Amino acid sequence: MRSTNMISFILNLDFLYIASYKFSTPWSYIERDIPYSMLRYITNGKARFKVDDKAFNIEKDDIIYFPEGSSIECYALGGTLEFLSIRFFNSSEKMGTGFSNQHLPISLRIKAVDDNMREVFFEILSAFNSQEKGKNYIVLGQLYSFDRFAA
């Protein structure tokens, strides 16, 4: 049985950036490898996302996870596409835990997230944009809350 804090205990996450994006069709992101992990929460619209060899049709309130080093490709499926994008590293491998970012137990696609998970994205964005001295701790604390999506 998995402890609710197991992932937080194993991982050492390094938050990089969060931003809100808005694109109109035709929007596409040509295939390329990414040097960090990324979580995207879709706030409006529909898109097709490809993570390595797996393709997903994503819509409002879905989350897509791109593991570090994966090849990604994206394009909007009509209308406006809006999403929040969080970028981070898992430095656990560097710390000798043997737990590689390629094997995070998080689903690549999370359908129709609940209000609590939606709120996490917006709290990270708000903390990141604030001038508070402890904002980095707030951001990291919220980032670790994604362990509820462990497979």
Secondary-structure map:
Elements: H1 6-10, E1 13-24, E2 28-33, E3 37-44, E4 46-51, E5 54-59, E6 63-66, E7 71-76, E8 80-90, E9 109-110, H2 115-129, H3 135-144
Antiparallel strand pairs: 1-8, 2-7, 3-6, 3-8, 4-5, 4-7, 6-9
Helix pairs in contact: 2-3
Pfam families: AraC_binding
InterPro entries: AraC-bd, HTH-like, RmlC-like_jellyroll
Keywords: DNA-binding
Salient structural properties:
single chain; 151 residues; alpha+beta; Jelly Rolls; four-stranded antiparallel sheet; 3 helices; 9 strands
CATH-derived topology:
Jelly Rolls
Distance between the termini: 12 Å
Which percent range fits the helix content? 10-25%
- Work out the radius of gyration: 15 Å
Question: CATH homologous superfamily, by name?
Answer: Regulatory protein AraC
Q: Structural class of the secondary structure composition? A: alpha+beta
Question: What is the molecular shape?
Answer: globular
Mean pLDDT: 78
Low-confidence runs of at least 5 consecutive residues: 1-9, 94-103
CATH class: Mainly Beta
Give the neighbour order of strands across the main sheet.
Answer: 1-8-3-6-9
N to C succession of SSEs = HEEEEEEEEEHH
The fraction of residues in strands falls at 35-45%
Strand element count: 9
Main sheet record: 5 strands, antiparallel
Q: Return the CATH architecture.
A: Sandwich
Annotation field: number of helices: 3
* Overall tally of domains: 1
Domain AraC-type arabinose-binding/dimerisation: 27-86
InterPro entries: AraC-bd (IPR003313), HTH-like (IPR037923), RmlC-like_jellyroll (IPR014710)
Keywords: DNA-binding
Organism: Tigheibacillus halophilus
